[in-house]
Write a structure and sequence with these properties.
This protein is of the alpha/beta class and 218 residues long. The chain contains 8 helices and 4 strands. Strands 1-2-3-4 form a 4-stranded parallel sheet. α1 runs parallel beside α2, α5 runs parallel beside α6 and α6 packs across α8. The chain is globular, with a radius of gyration of 18 Å.
Length: 218
Amino acid sequence: MHGPMFNVCAEDAAAGIAAAHRSLRRAARLGARWVVLHPGSAQGLTSDRERYEWTKQRNVEVFRDLLTTAEQVGVGIAIENMGGSEGPAFGTNVSELLWLVEALDSPYAGICWDTGHAHLAGLDQGLAIRAVGTYLVALHLSDNDGKKDQHWCPGRGSVDWHAVMGALRDVGYAGPLNLEVPGETWVTPRSAMPAKLQYLAAVCAALIADYDAGEGGS
């Protein structure tokens, strides 16, 4: 499940942090294994080295605090890669995500890969997902045109889905293919929603077939 979206580096982060603790407890009651949370960034991240280092340490401080609840209730925290569409953001590149998860050093800390964010950041998703490797515990699958986070259905934008599925196969990912496509609900009439859901299911089946085809060598 997705936890509350807030900036851990903001002055008013306390309310968001408290909400994140509550979301972890709710996830345990619901039987969810992972709660997705965003890393935070200070303003002017790239213009000041001290601010960048403070951002890194602040993320470690907040997520270590959240991990006390996560470990207590047996629910993991999946830290999501950011898109950087609104300026430089910590966690946009793989090296920052890996640094943070390794600094936390907990089996309850992993990475959620958002294909839409990665596309906006201009990442080679095949290389990036392989670098994330076994830290990958959750997915947010969506497509876009590389300019705006439209949250479209896979195949509607310009994400290289063959590269994504090949990398997921190579790292042994076996979790849910979680679609994050509210952009489809914005343009689909309510009466057409059942047909759209059937279409989305067919798209997922095609993605899984691409995943399986690589295993079989076909």
